[in-house]
Amino acid sequence: MTEALFTPFTAGDMALKNRVVMAPLTRNRADNDTGEVGDLHVAYYRQRAGAGLIVTEASQISPVGKGYLATPGIHTTGQVAAWRKVTDAVHAAGGRIVIQLWHVGRISHVSLQPGGQAPVSASAVPAGVKTFTANGFEETSPPRALTVEEIAATVADYRHAARSAIEAGFDGVEVHGANGYLIDQFLKTGTNRRDDAYGGSIENRTRFLFEVMQAVTDEIGGARTGLRLSPYSPANGISDADPTPLFTHAIQGLNRFGLAYLHMVEGATGGSRELAEGESIAALRAHFDGPYMANNGYDRAMALNAVASGAADLVAFGRPYIANPDLVERLRRDAPLSELDRETLYGGGAEGYTDYPALGAAEQGQAAG
Ligand code: 8OZ
């Protein structure tokens, strides 16, 4: 019997060969000056083309959207040409790949910003967390609030990045609305103290998200656009006074865009799946009409069950994909998973990046036996 996790699925315009997704993973190996990916990225993503869908590492939509050393961008012609080699390699290997569109907002440092300026956010509320700069881990710099004109320009940057993604050969984009970055900073009360049309009520705090989704879907179509949210995650010092009504409104409002999928971090990003009393991912998911991608701490049994039961259409695996380039094959055969090396997660070269082996032919025979 073929488990549903390994059967094809169509997400918007994207015909996927299975329901296993490689989640976005920041690895800090792009050229820090140009934001361009290189040959290592081509090899890394090609090795992982067995996934039904790859979501790339988060990639900044503009220079001010950058918040960590050596993350890639998707806004210059050089970045587009560099990513084209990755998308060609993944497609030649039979995979599908979308790029995650990222603006970090306040999760940045003056040394990473154009002209050494302060990072931007919904409001001038410091994050009190660390980022990764040329000097190692450093406290994020206090942000300033975007003006209404700058918000419009930022929406235009998302649109331009989405167009650039299609020019680079991506099958679509995933807008990063999660983990305490700019969109989340507008959504949640801990970071949004605005008293204009972008702050205060739930309608106002979701305005920026909806403007971004409108611009991106106008530009490339909803069927090539996904979105990642993390309603209950405290990642990057974010908080909201009452997240359930906020995300109920947000998710209901997303239905009009005909998205390829909604990707949810179910709990604390990279941490606990426990929720507070009255909070339920299933209840939020029920408001969404389109394909649902589950994420956060899934193992094989959880993923098989989530798809078989209909709780999820797709399951995104993050950390397991770092050390297991052939993760789908290992899940299919119920083969052991390799452990990742934490020392080589962020930055560096091929070590801990492209040198994790796939199952050997002999092991594959045994596991299949
Ligand atoms: C780990 C390190 C740096 C960035 C996220 C883009 O949490 C990230 C990220 C993760 O979404």
Automatic annotation (TrEMBL):
GO cellular component assignments: cytosol
Superkingdom, natural source: Bacteria
Keywords (A to Z) from UniProt: Oxidoreductase
InterPro entries listed in its UniProt record: Aldolase_TIM, OxRdtase_FMN_N, Oye-like
Record flagged with keyword NADP: no
Domain named NADH:flavin oxidoreductase/NADH oxidase N-terminal: residues: 5-335
Needed co-factor(s): FMN
GO molecular function: FMN binding; oxidoreductase activity, acting on the CH-CH group of donors, NAD or NADP as acceptor
Family statement drawn from the similarity comment of this UniProt entry: Belongs to the NADH:flavin oxidoreductase/NADH oxidase family.
Name the record gives this protein: Alkene reductase
UniProt source species: Pseudooceanicola pacificus
